[in-house]
Amino acid sequence: MSTTPNNEKSDKTVPFTTSDDAAKVAQSGNGIGSTSGVELVNRVAQSAHAAIDKLANQATPAVQHLQKSLEGTGELLHDRADKLRSAGDEWAESARSGVREHPLVAVGTAFALGLLIARLAR
Questions:
Q1: Of 48, 82, 95, 99, which is most buried, counting CB atoms within 10 Å of its CB?
Q2: How many domains are contained in the chain?
Q3: What is the DSSP string of 35-68?
């Protein structure tokens, strides 16, 4: 049984892929020194688990700090978006009221801007 992926070319094979496979080999007595092989696999697995646990414990405070920062940033962005929305609404209402109060000035301004844009577009 080989654990080499299909896309990798290697003549090396591993006699077992999991600790269960290693235990089966040890029980059947097919491997030379299979008991020490099982012990080696178990020690390597325990070391790997310990290293992963240590990395996870070290990363946890940084992840929590980042999460708190992002939550605060999200709230800040929502507040600023609300302020911008309300400022836009106030500006639009101000423009509407100005047009209602002085309709001829609004039409004249629109005409003048149209002429200016037409001249610049040539």
A1: 99
A2: 1
A3: HHHHHHHHHHHHHHHHHHHHHHHHHHHHHHHHHH
